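Tokens in:
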């Protein structure tokens, strides 16, 4: 399986091959339960960039998130980096970057919206813009880590067109207070019949874009290090980055 995955990193698919070079900044999480995924993320993203004509800087140093530094990048990835773990100035820098047309890829814990987080921080300020950016949803406790199925709804979108109609992975299957569907473009949803929910959403988008922003994609899966050797996850992240880089 790992050999297949690295072959996928080496061999571009379709129109992705002709994409021009660009720079990516991936900010990773320092949370203890994300350590395994963060350890594999750096070689995972660096190999992907090397084989698909983009450079990537991977770091857990949020001081890199400032207006001056972000100007050199086409895409910012928040790889399980929660919004409440950024300072107010760092949040403003990301917001300005996105509003000026920069690409944003949020993975898993990057979508932790809600005022229940971060209130213990000395300079806590809730980032309301980010909640709206995510489609107006608030995160609720997720079920246990378990296998489940992702159903791809839009197989014409550049982010998901190289994926199968459905695929199985193991994850935490993040839940929200409601479906973001009215405010976002859903690319894929979680098949709630394939695992045990904490609180069923019924309509459970798991990958989506926000049409109000040029190049924003949120990917709700991405908790476990095993995904760094999963072919479908590799395709998803590769194509999400390349789409987000386009102007």
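Residues out:
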């Amino acid at each position: 399986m790992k050999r297949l995955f690295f072959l996928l990193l080496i061999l571009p698919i379709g129109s992705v091959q002709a994409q021009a070079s660009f720079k990516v900044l991936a900010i990773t999480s320092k949370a203890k339960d994300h350590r395994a995924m963060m350890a594999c993320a750096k070689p995972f993203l660096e190999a992907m960039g090397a084989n698909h004509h983009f450079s990537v800087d991977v770091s857990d140093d949020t001081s890199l998130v400032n207006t001056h530094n972000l100007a050199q990048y086409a895409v910012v990835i928040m790889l399980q980096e929660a919004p409440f773990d950024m300072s107010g100035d760092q949040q403003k820098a990301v917001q300005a970057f996105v509003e000026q047309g920069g690409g944003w890829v949020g993975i898993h814990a990057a979508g932790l919206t809600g005022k229940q987080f971060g209130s213990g921080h000395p300079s806590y300020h809730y980032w309301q813009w980010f909640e709206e950016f995510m489609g107006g949803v608030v995160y609720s406790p997720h079920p246990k880590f378990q296998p489940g199925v992702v159903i791809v709804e839009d197989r014409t979108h550049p982010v998901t067109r190289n994926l199968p109609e459905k695929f199985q992975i193991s994850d935490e299957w993040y839940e929200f207070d409601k479906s973001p569907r009215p405010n976002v473009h859903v690319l894929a949803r979680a098949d709630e019949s394939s695992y045990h929910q904490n609180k069923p959403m019924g309509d459970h988008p798991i990958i989506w874009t926000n049409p109000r922003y040029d190049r924003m994609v949120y990917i709700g899966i991405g908790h476990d290090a095993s995904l760094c050797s999963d072919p479908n996850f590799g395709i998803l992240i590769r194509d999400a980055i390349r789409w987000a880089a386009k102007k």
